Amino acid sequence: MTNGQTDTEVRHIEQEAAPSRFARGWHCIGLEREFLDGKPHTVTGFGRKLVVWADSSGAIKVLDGYCRHMGGDLSQGTIKGDEVACPFHDWRWGGDGRCKQIPYSRRVPLRARTQAWPTLVQDGMVFVWNDPEGKAPIPEQAIPRVDGGPGTPGWTDWAWYQTRVDTNCREIIDNMVDMAHFFYVHHAFPTYFKNTFEGHTATQLQKGVNRDDMRPAEVAIGAPKRLGNTSVATYHGPSFMIDDLIYHYEHGDVRTVLINCHYPVDENSFVLQYGISVERPESPEDAAAAERLADKMVQTVRIGFEQDVDIWKNKTRIDNPLLCEEDGPVYQLRRWYEQFYVDVADIRPEMTDRFEFELDTTRPNEAWQREVDENVARRAAEAAEAATSDELVSQTQGA
């Protein structure tokens, strides 16, 4: 008997319903350039419909999507001046949430006000602030400027992609501490892995090398061969990660910024977004090559996230994961993440106190290297056997 359990006692999965409350913090809803076309846009998030548009000065505005008059869909309306006009009765709503004009009425009712969402436009991205308590943005949760990226001379524009994932967004957060899945799901080979949680941030420091037995996905899209990578990825709040990522290629290092972010559609689905910007080489003739490389890299990242999605759509929610010694600090990460789902007054010190954990990669790396060597040897034997068979066929035909 160990820890009160016999070796025949069955471990049961525990799971509660995903919280219907949505995380407090800044959430990226897309690139600014997508909202500057003079039209209202629909964003379905936080369990409701939002309308997003740019006023005459180009400032991004976000309101609840349904008109408080008779429930018309504002995202199906038009932009008139600085206001979004409801397609039902032409009530004009300003970005502050107040109805500014009703063309057929002498006056606007005093109570004609809808919810306006605090917005932030930074580094070419649009953020909205969500707080179940209805409070203003917290300075400590401010999104930092990207070091590099499209706002910096010599960097490519964002190569951007988004997709809807039908599961709770805690699944993507768990990846922050899950070193082993990088080998088995993404065919990577981590050699160093450390997590640090403090305040509103959670960081993953990872170093890795290329796997000689696994590159079919990259080959298929014509991506260059990587030797390895160094990654410092930090969540700033519950949903926005900046990954300062250096790819090590045969021709040299390439510095990139990877954005990995999401916003909840409802408690059981979220919109996943990611983008890459690449530092261009100094020689002007290679500038176009940098743009092509960024596109190839975002395709590679897309493959990686699609591999995650394949896992998520088939796995079950688990609140009591059974961990081994070489797994990461899943419970500590979830405790950090919980701070965004409780009232500010209920945040406990253990949710925000500094926590560091460095995984011992000795055993995983030994096991993974054996698997890689076995795969390489098997493929070499299969190739040699195929070559011998082809030669015999050729000799037979020649005879």
CATH H-tier superfamily of the largest domain: Naphthalene 1,2-dioxygenase Alpha Subunit, Chain A, domain 1
Number of helices: 7
Give the second-level CATH assignment, the architecture of the largest domain. Answer: Alpha-Beta Complex
Total discrete domains: 2
The portion of residues assigned to helices is 10-25%
CATH class of the largest domain: Alpha Beta
Overall shape? globular
**Radius of gyration using CA atoms only:** 25 Å
The share of residues in extended strands comes to: 25-35%
Order of secondary-structure elements: EEEEEEEEEEEHHEEHEEEEHHHEH
Strands of the widest sheet, in order across it, are 11-17-16-15-14-13-12-18
- Tell me the span between the first and last alpha carbons: 72 Å
InterPro entries: Cholesterol_7-desaturase, KshA-like_C, Rieske_2Fe-2S, Rieske_2Fe-2S_sf
Subunit structure: Homotrimer. The two-component system 3-ketosteroid-9-alpha-monooxygenase is composed of an oxygenase component KshA and a reductase component KshB.
Protein name: Rieske-type oxygenase
Domain Rieske: 26-128
